[in-house]
Amino acid sequence: MSNQQTLIELNSIQKVFFTDEVETHALSNIELSINAGEYISISGPSGCGKSTLLSILGLLDTVTNGQYQLNGHQVASLNATQRARIRNKEVGFIFQSFNLISDLTVEENVALPLTYRDDFSSQDIDKAVKEALEKVDMAHRANHFPSQLSGGQQQRVAVARAIAGNPSIILADEPTGNLDSKNAEAVMSLLDELHREGATICMVTHDPRSAKRAQRLVEILDGKVIADNPIARGVQAA
Ligand code: ADP
Ligand code: MG
């Protein structure tokens, strides 16, 4: 018997989008479990269902059929309010396009999700924001607005926002897709560091070299998992 704690369990997940007369079967029969502390990457061609899967994992979208258990919560049984509360507590989401709010400062962006938490006092929020910004080396830009930052800096702020609430899982959808190679490496190193410190990470990426930074690679094709394998260590790409 494994002594690792199962954090995420997906059983027979199906997602169908209905638009006009068209039915898109974005995900079919997805089975996936993720243990606490794992670092997983998800890859596959454009349109295969990666973002849909990550949105479901992050409680940003719901399934058409199947069971999703997140850290003991049966997601299907939650109403919209409960789902938002659990999302805010359990999930840190990092988007390809950063998704910072342009008229909030860096520290206000990082603080915003915490203001919806009933377990964070305003002092707790200040402390968590400061620590998260220090972690991503952006504390010196706390009072700047997103438009005053480079893309790499904005994504580091987005990482701070994702980790400030100490979520049980960090989900990243092509987190380096809009960055040059130097800034991409800075974000990837941050994810490595968070993982070493115990974070559970699930990252969608097109880039095979980024995918190999994880411990396990899940490959998707046409809405189905076609491979799910550990990544060999000690053959780090140069
Ligand atoms: P990927 O992230 O792997 O590129 P997506 O998960 O974005 O793929 O999309 C999977 C499939 O679902 C595609 O065919 C896409 O067009 C479709 N799809 C995604 N989101 C929606 C939506 N909101 N409405 C209709 N179809 C969608
Ligand atoms: Mg996508």
TrEMBL record:
Q: What Pfam families would the database entry show?
A: ABC_tran
Q: Membrane spanning segments where?
A: none
* Name of the protein in question: ABC transporter ATP-binding protein
Matching entries from SMART domains are given as: AAA
Report if keyword Transport is assigned: yes
MF (Gene Ontology) = ATP binding; ATP hydrolysis activity; transmembrane transporter activity
* Keywords assigned by UniProt, alphabetized: ATP-binding, Nucleotide-binding, Transport
What the entry lists under InterPro entries is as follows: AAA+_ATPase, ABC_transporter-like_ATP-bd, ABC_transporter-like_CS, ABC_transpr_LolD-like, MacB-like_ATP-bd, P-loop_NTPase
Protein family membership: Belongs to the ABC transporter superfamily. Macrolide exporter (TC 3.A.1.122) family.
ABC transporter domain sequence ranges: 8-237
What GO terms fall under cellular component here? plasma membrane; transmembrane transporter complex
Which organism is this protein's natural source?
A: Thalassotalea algicola
